[in-house]
Amino acid sequence: MATAFSSINVVQHARCDNFSVASRKPSSAFLGSTYSIRLSPSASRSASVSAAVNRKASSVSAVSEVVKEKKQKSVSSGSNLLITKEEGLEVYEDVVLGRVFEDMCAQMYYRGKMFGFVHLYNGQEAVSTGFIKLLKKEDCVVSTYRDHVHALSKGVPAREVMSELFGKTTGCCRGQGGSMHMFSKEHNLIGGFAFIGEGIPIATGAAFTSKYRREVLKEADCDHVTVAFFGDGTCNNGQFYECLNMAALWKLPIVFVVENNLWAIGMSHLRSTSDPEIWKKGPAFGMPGVHVDGMDVLKVREVAKEAIGRARRGEGPTLVECETYRFRGHSLADPDELRDPDEKARYAARDPIAALKKYMFENNLVKEAELKAIDKKIDELVEDAVEFADESPQPSRSQLLENVFADPKGFGIGPDGRYRCEDPKFTEGTAHV
Amino acid sequence: MAATFQVLGAATGLFFSGSFDPQRLHLPSIRSVSERRTGFLVVRSDGHIVSSWNFPARRTQQFITSSIATKANEAASATTSKPGHELLLFEALREGLEEEMERDPCVCVMGEDVGHYGGSYKVTKGLAEKYGDLRVLDTPIAENSFTGMGIGAAMTGLRPVVEGMNMGFLLLAFNQISNNCGMLHYTSGGQFKIPIVIRGPGGVGRQLGAEHSQRLESYFQSIPGIQMVACSTPYNAKGLMKAAIRSENPVILFEHVLLYNLKERIPDEEYVLSLEEAEMVRPGEHVTILTYSRMRYHVMQAAKTLVNKGYDPEVIDIRSLKPFDLYTIGSSVKKTHRVLIVEECMRTGGIGASLTAAITENFHDHLDAPIMCLSSQDVPTPYAGTLENWTVVQPAQIVTAVEQLCQ
């Protein structure tokens, strides 16, 4: 039976060549950061398909190598730059915003301005900036509880994010979501989820809508892409695999981005995963799996261009594993005693902001003063956000029952025959439901 | 997990095995018969018990029914002079769904075997041919993820109808239903609405075994932000389906495995029922009997016996399991002062338990006797037919309960 979704049975086997392990420890070193990885497609159904795949696969493959080459070349010859000056400044501003904002969050938390679970993104900025700065406003982003920086990269104003963290009514979710539930309809940020993995089906649904609009509603120019961010711990969760299957089956316009920071609270990725190379799980479902150095924003950006381009052209999903690291603990409540200080030091030396700065200086893209100006601008922006959040009002009681239902008739009919939502106690927030 | 079973096979379950003698039925004479057919009992929503022969969906000839109560002329044909058209409950659901899909191109269906197979209970039969494979989506067996996908699609502008092949399978989707479906409108500060309909057959069938005989309304009722409705007749099935699809809130529509072949004449004109209102099935004076879904028919059968014994029960099908229609229920309680709840849900933490609490809270002064609640036993539904019958409420128990209540 001919369905519209007979998936191209592309099996892409990836082999790890060049196992040059620059590890200082024996067997427990994480495989990945120093490897170059190639995708070599094996036999597929038809010659034309395999040819197309070969082209695509080779352009997706070995990105780390390609980028490394390009970078080396550009340092010497000054041509083939990965980024223009304007792009460089935009990218720099975004990574600095992420870092400064998160540092300010830590300060505010310890001063008692925000409570609960707050998960900071320090060190991982390259992934958020690398992907989200390539997206259009209509593209959707789905994140996890570590979502402040995804919100900022997507365009949610720092004021709104900070207010949300302070629990004020001017927050992006009116103070009702908090740190782990950032949403913005205007900027198409559809969460912010507390349980790991539960955002991935939501992202798959958003991608489904995009395909539906193009094919059923005949909106020919609808090529919106969804990018789903999640961590290494999530990659052992059923929802991840179920969604990889569905996305590949129906060629949904989605990019699955794994922010592999090696630790799920205190559980090392190597201790919990039978095969720790997450990118390999993509080809098992019929989509390309790519591994990239997630501490380097330019490398991430190159991979992102390819993956997002694939999705936009209707070629289906991609699984991108970004090897990255969080400089702080899992959350502000985490004492972070388990991680080896050597490991932390190694990754601190690969700070994405420092790497970007170095690249831009070496290629004479910017001057020191321009970057300093951006630093100052961001500092002021974040200070202003804190001030705004401080001065914003707390939610009033009337807000309590307002958003439980989109249609408040859902509260039902009261004993007096009228819909309960017509009772003034509902607008006051004092009714009991 | 997903057991495949024939639609007709499940439908041959008789409604009242213990308390009903098929020998006393008038069997109909049939004008012409072709193809294979299955006999089963149909209970009309006005309480009459009818037997009829069911043909596969493509039957073209009218068939004859007879009613025990009225002893109608057996040769009388199903007349075309009466307004409306007759159909079975699953066809009514399909009609409602199809009308809404025709009306709004954003309405789509997702579920296992809803497309090419036509739905395991044929509710979506023919829709995939008409609307295509994307609009009537056959999903892999991944309830949590495709329910989440439906929620994500709803948040981004579509109006999906997610089918659980059996309601019990939606236990696997509990994460998405509880965390995302109910909560995200609130957590996002009202930015995203989730106009999703989650529907499927549940309830105790005919020896389907414990896992296929679950009543999930008790598990879902605590989730804030969702509405739950249960249909029981072709008329309210179509009306509630349409209302659920048009609602901006997430709605869970509970159908019952044994009610899919109920036949009723429904209006030709378009109609949409209210999701929050209860249905007055039989007005009365002596006692209020609150029920929903399949138990409505047990109650109506018990009502016949009660009427013969001189009682006048008021029967209300609450339809809206969350929120309760406190006005219809309250007006009834104020009239009769006695309440009996008959449900198929489990005793512990079921809909009856919540209803008892709600009535006590709101109408305590009007009660002349404590509220009685007849629920299914807290037992995993056994396979053996006799044991299965003893786990659900039977009409004889209802009669006894009313007699006790009205002493």
UniProtKB/TrEMBL annotation, chain A:
Residues 97-396 form the Dehydrogenase E1 component domain. Its cofactor is thiamine diphosphate. The keyword Oxidoreductase applies. Tetramer of 2 alpha and 2 beta subunits. Transmembrane segments: none annotated. It catalyses: N(6)-[(R)-lipoyl]-L-lysyl-[protein] + pyruvate + H(+) = N(6)-[(R)-S(8)-acetyldihydrolipoyl]-L-lysyl-[protein] + CO2. Keywords: Oxidoreductase, Pyruvate, Thiamine pyrophosphate. The pyruvate dehydrogenase complex catalyzes the overall conversion of pyruvate to acetyl-CoA and CO(2). It contains multiple copies of three enzymatic components: pyruvate dehydrogenase (E1), dihydrolipoamide acetyltransferase (E2) and lipoamide dehydrogenase (E3). PANTHER family: PYRUVATE DEHYDROGENASE E1 COMPONENT SUBUNIT ALPHA, PYRUVATE DEHYDROGENASE E1 COMPONENT, ALPHA SUBUNIT BACTERIAL AND ORGANELLAR. Gene3D superfamilies: 3.40.50.970. NCBIfam families: PDH_E1_alph_y. It comes from Trapa incisa. One of its GO terms (molecular function) is pyruvate dehydrogenase (acetyl-transferring) activity. This is Pyruvate dehydrogenase E1 component subunit alpha. GO terms for biological process: pyruvate decarboxylation to acetyl-CoA. InterPro entries: DH_E1, PDH_E1_Alpha_Subunit, Pyrv_DH_E1_asu_subgrp-y, THDP-binding. Its EC number is 1.2.4.1.
From TrEMBL, chain B:
SUPFAM superfamilies: Thiamin diphosphate-binding fold (THDP-binding), TK C-terminal domain-like. InterPro entries: THDP-binding, Transketo_C/PFOR_II, Transketolase-like_Pyr-bd, Transketolase_C. Its main location: plastid. Keywords: Chloroplast, Metal-binding, Oxidoreductase, Plastid, Potassium, Pyruvate, Thiamine pyrophosphate, Transit peptide. Residues 87-262 form the Transketolase-like pyrimidine-binding domain. Gene3D superfamilies: 3.40.50.920, 3.40.50.970. It catalyses: N(6)-[(R)-lipoyl]-L-lysyl-[protein] + pyruvate + H(+) = N(6)-[(R)-S(8)-acetyldihydrolipoyl]-L-lysyl-[protein] + CO2. GO terms for molecular function: metal ion binding; pyruvate dehydrogenase (acetyl-transferring) activity. SMART domains: Transket_pyr. Its cofactor is thiamine diphosphate. Its EC number is 1.2.4.1. Tetramer of 2 alpha and 2 beta subunits. This is pyruvate dehydrogenase (acetyl-transferring). It comes from Trapa incisa.
